[in-house]
Write a structure and sequence with these properties.
By secondary structure, this protein is of the alpha+beta class. It is built from 24 helices and 38 strands. The structure holds zinc ion (ZN).
Amino acid sequence: MSKKIFSFTSLLLLLLPFTLIAQTTPDEFLGHRVGADRKLADYNQIQAYFKKLDKESGKIKVLTIGQSTLNKPIIMAVITSEDNMAKLDTYRGISKKLRDARGLTPDGARKLAKEGKVIVFITCNLHSDEIGSSQMALEFAYKLVTGKTPFDADKVLEDVIILIAPTINPDGQQMVTDWYRKYVGTKYEGGRMPWLYQKYAGHDNNRDWFMLNLAETKAVTKVMYQDWIPQIHIDQHQIGSSGARLWIPPFANPPNPNVHPLIWRGVALCGMNMAYDLQKNGFKGVQYGQEFAGWWDGACDNTPWFHNTICLLSEAASARMASPINIDSAEISKSYIEKSMQFPDPWPGGWWRLRDMVDYEITLSMSLVKTAYLHKKDFLYNFYKMCKDSIEKREEGQPYAFVMPKKQCDYPTTLRMLDILMSAGVEINQAKEDFVIGDKLYPAGSFVILMSQPYRPYVQALLEIQKHPDIKRQYPNGPFIPLAYDNAGWTLPLQMGIKCDQINNPFKANLTKLDKVPYPSPTPPQETASYIVLDSRLNTSYSVVFSLIKTKAEIYRSKDIIKGKGFEAAAGSFIVKNTPQVRKALPVLLDKWDVRAFGLENIADIPKASLKRFRIGLYQSWRSNMDEGWTRYVFDDLSIPFATLHNKDFKGTKEKKVNLRAKFDVIVFADENANIIKTGRRSPSSRYARYYSGSIPPEYEGGIGKEGVEALKSFVEQGGILVTLNSACGLAFDDFNVPAGNALERVDRSKFSCPGSILRVKVDNKSPIGYGMPKEAAIMFYQSMALSTRIPSEGWDRKVVARFPEDDILLSGWLFGEDVIARKAAVVDIKHKKGHIILIGFPCQHRAQSHGTYKFLLNALLYPEVK
Ligand SMILES: [Zn+2]
C-alpha cells in the first residue's frame, strides 16, 4: 500500500509543498520485510520500487545506463539533495575537469573541490547468486531519501551524490530469483542453477573489466570513466558461509606498483571507518587486510584503482540464497575462530540469514557515504592530484609511451584493442608522418599512447609486461601458495597478438589525438578477378568465410604462402571463387569485418585443399561452465554458426545408436574436467569436489556417459574433428588412448608453478591448425597442460603444432619450473582413421581476451582436409 497524501487534508498539502507524497517503504511495496527468510525481490520488483521512489521523492532519480545482454534495462539511481539534483550536469562537469590537470592549477582545483560534490558509486549483485546486495539496495535507497540514516541525511546529501545500481547483472538477478522460487520448499531449495547466470560469462563477469566484452561491463564502465567520473566506488559481493561474516578492504599484498599510493590510503580510510561503524553497532566477524589482493587489473573493483578512483569490495557471508543456514562453531575454519588484528571479534556460529547480509551491507554502505561526506573536499582535490601526478610525474625506468606500428599481423584486432582502451578513458594518438625512435622507423598511421595522461596507471598496467613478485611456498621447498586472486600476468597486446613497443625515452613525432578508432573503409577487390584471397592472419577473415560458406561459395585454403600482385598472404589463406553471389555478398562483409581482400587470376599452381560445409557442435554441461560460455561468446562475436550439444544428444535409443557424424563435422569441448563431462561430477578425490555437493534436479544430473564417449570415438573414426580445450584434453587421454598425455599430471606442486601467466610457444604455421599464426606466439597458461606426445601405434598419427621453447618461456606473470615444460607441446593435431582430435592444452580463447591464439580453434573449425 502506498501512503498517498490524498488521505491528508488539503491544508496540510499547502503546508508541505516539498513532500507531496509520502515514500512507500520497500517492505510495504514487497509485502514482506526486505531480506525475510525465503523471500526475494526479483528484478521486475526492484525496478518498479525504484521507479516508485523516484515518483515519490525529489531526492532520487532513476536512470537507465544501458541494456543487458538479454535486453533488460540496467537501472541506476542517483540519490542526492533536491538542489544538487537540479545541477547534476554541473557536478559531473566538475568531476571531469578535476580529472585533467592540463589547464587546471592547484588553486583552481581547490576551488572546484569546494564547489563540487563527491560522487560515490555503489554497484550490487554483479554475481547474481550473491543476492544480498540487490535486496539491500531497496532499503538503502529508502533510508537515504527519508533521512532514516545514522547521520544527518539533509546535510550529507548536500555534499554527496550517490549512484546505486541495485544489480549490474539484471539478467542473472531475474534468473536466479526465478530458479529459487521454483524450488523453494523442495529438496533443491537454495541450490545452484545448472546454467550460467550471465549468458556468456557466469561468475567470470567479474573477469571482464579491462576487456569490456559484456554489455553490462560496457554500461558500468561508461558511468565510471565517461559520464559520471565517481571518486569512490564499491562493488558488493558474497563469499562462502563458514568464514568471516564480512570481508572489507584494505586489500592484501601484493599491491600493483602502478596504483597511486593515495588510492591505497583512501581505500584504507574508507575500509577502517566501515569496520569501526560495524563494530560499534555490534556486527561481529568483520575481517580486513587478507584474502583479496591489490595486484590484478581485471575485476569490477580493480580497474578503478588504475583510474585514480578509490575502489572497495565487500564480501558478506552467504546463506543458501534466501534460505537461512545454521553453522555450528565446529564448522568454522580455525582462522575465523582466533582473534587477530585484522579480525578482532570472531563470530561464534549460529543462524545466518539473508537479512543478516542486508544489515551488514546497509551499515557498511552508510558508513561509506558518511566518510565521503566527511572528506569531501579532500577526495575531490586528491582525485585531481592523483590524475595530475599521472600526467606529470614519470619515474626513472617508467615508459614514456607505447607504440603500435602500423603494420600488424591482424590489423582489425589491433583496432579492437584501441577501441577497448578508449572506452576506458585512455587517450590515443596516431602519427601523421613517419617517425624514428632509436634506429626503428615507424610509418605514418602508427598508434602512439603517451603515458602523460590522467589514467597513466591503467595504460601501463594493461600494456606492460607483468613481473609478479616471487610466490611464497607453504614451507621451505614445499608447494607454492596459490595466488590470492586470479592472474599473475595479463599483458593485453600479448594476449591479442599485437605488436606494441614500450618506449622509455622521449621522442619526436607528429601526432593527432584520436576521438574515435579509425576503422578503415576497405575497397573490394576488382570485380573482374577470378578468385578472391582473404589472409588467414586476420581473425575476421574467418568470419567472412563462415558467411560465404553459407552462400555455398567454392573455397580453398592454400597450403603455402600466396604471392600475388601487390600482396602476400600467409599459408592457410582462403581462396574464394569470385561468382556473382560472392561479388554481391563481399562488399558488406568486408566492411563489417574490416577485412581487405585481394584479387587473383590463376590458382592452378597454388597447393590447396578445399573447404566444405562446416557443422559445428559445442558441448554444454549442466555445470554452468564459464569457458563454454566464453567459447559461445567468441562464436557469436565472430558470427560463427554452431549448435549446442547437451548430454542427451550423446545418447541414442535402444533401437538406434546416436550418429554424431551425420549431424556434425566438428565437436568442441571447452575447458572442463573430463570427469564432469563424462559423469557430471568431479572425481571424489578432487579438492574442488565439495563445491559440487549441492543437489540438483535429476534432469540435470550426469554427463555424456560411456555411451557418449563411444559415440565420440565413432565420430572421429568417421572423419569428424574433435576439439578439446585445456583440461577437456583429459577426455582424449583417458578414453581415446591418444598418443599424448599431460606432462604436468604427476609433477609435484613444489616443482612447478604458473598461475595465470603468458608463455611463449613456437608454432608450425604451415600445418593446418597453425595457419595464420606467427612463428612465435604468446599463450595464456591458465591451469593448463604441457602435452607430451609419443610414437603412435597403428591407426594413429600426431603432429605437434605449437611447442614450448627450450628456455625464456615466461613472457608475462610468473613461472617456476620452466624446465618441466620446456620443449613440450601446447597444441597437438592427432590423426585417427578418417578424423582428427585436436588437443589444445591451454584456453586459446581465454575469456574472449586472447584474440592472438583464437586461430588454433578457428583452424580446427575450418580444417581443410575434411571431405
Ligand atoms: Zn562475487
